[in-house]
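Our consortium's second objective concerns turning raw sequence data into structural hypotheses that experimental partners can test. To show how far this objective has progressed, the report includes one record in full. It was chosen at random from the queue rather than selected for favorable results. The single chain below, 104 residues long, was entered without modification.
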Amino acid sequence: MEDQNPNNNQLNIELSEDVAEGIYSNLAIITHSPTEFVIDFIKIMPGVPKARVKSRIVLTPQHAKRLMKAIADNVNKFEQVHGKIKDTEVNALPLSFGGPTAQA
């Protein structure tokens, strides 16, 4: 007879302190091949013409689609509580953020 313990399907996830702090990103670039999606998370700073990839996530196409659905579901839940998120069109990378340009 199978064990009917509901905890058999439980997954314990460990979150270290350095990972729990998170990585701030204000730009994501997504590329893909027939076998994987790559999401690069980048932080652009005002007046700095160079930006670094802060984190890279590699997913299978199936997991990328699951992530897309999960994000859409969470955005909908957020908007139900906090109102519509303003969607602004960005035609170019916001390298200056409208502030002064850095000088050395």
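The partners drew two points from this record. The longest helix spans residues 61-82. The first strand starts at residue 27 and ends at 32. Both points have been shared with the crystallography group to help prioritize constructs.
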